[in-house]
Amino acid sequence: MQLTKTMPAALVGIWGGEMPPAPFVQEIYLTHFQLAGAIYVDGWGAIAAEMKTGDLLNLLREPENVQDRFAIQVVDAERRKLGYMPRRMNHIPARLMDARKLLYVKITKVNAPELVMELDLFMRE
Q1: Which residue, of 17, 20, 88, 118, is most buried by count of CB atoms within 10 Å of its CB?
Q2: pLDDT tens for residues 13-32?
Q3: Which domains does the chain show, CATH number per domain?
């Protein structure tokens, strides 16, 4: 008896000559946190006043940060710095980002005058 390898072309043939459908892309909720360091960002109140609950924000890794090698900056679409993910909870998200996983946040609460922003962290699969 001779074993044969399954060829990728055989799998394509199952789908009628086309590539199989892409898997369903979903967002995975990871955690909730309050933005840290807003008090140190010049013009934070004006930037935050433009934002509302449900807005998406981006994350930027800062591995060269001398204060925290797991630092993750929270920025808007224009890459304006808003603050940081708190140090007490950034280790695992930083490692996920270093592994090229897509992480982002959604605003759940924003109060510009009081320098308060709460965020939900998600990973897209």
Answers
A1: 118
A2: 444 555 555 566 789 999 99
A3: 26-124 (3.30.70.2330)
3-state DSSP: the chain helix, strand, coil percent, rounded to 5? 25, 35, 40
Q: What is the DSSP letter of 28?
A: E
Phi-psi region of 22 (alpha: psi -120 to 50; beta: other; left: phi over 0): beta
DSSP one-letter code for 113: G
Nearest in space to 93 (alpha carbons), one of 26, 33, 48: 33
Query: How do residues 76-92 score in pLDDT, each as one tens digit?
Result: 999 999 999 999 999 99
| Pair of tokens at residue 69 | 């090698």
Q: Is 72 exposed, middle or buried (0-12, 13-18, 19+ CB in 10 A)?
A: buried
Distance CA 101, CA 125 (A): 8
Q: What distance lies between CA 106 and its chain's CA centroid? A: 9
Predicted confidence at residue 14, as pLDDT, reads: 46
